[in-house]
Amino acid sequence: MGFIKLVIFGFIGLTVIYFSVSLYSRSVRKERLEDEFDTEHPDGGVPGARDTFVSEGLKAYDASVRPKLIGLVYVVPMVVIGAIVYMINAR
Questions:
Q1: pTM greater than 0.85 (yes/no)
Q2: Which of 67, 74, 2 is nearest to 30 (CA)?
């Protein structure tokens, strides 16, 4: 019963961590895109161009490897806990 509680609460905790890291990573990328546009267009550029530039950059970000790597938030702790449980019970 204790192991089931660990799995349930661990999954809930990992989900909170996953969404937090995902939102943080996306916001950092958005900020970098905005700064990049502001550097390239100090006069502000064409109206609406900044939003288009940022949205296209975020689409490219979503298709990249980085958001998929954030999924390791689930995998790594599960592997570590599984290895610990195996080592403890293998004696």
A1: no
A2: 67
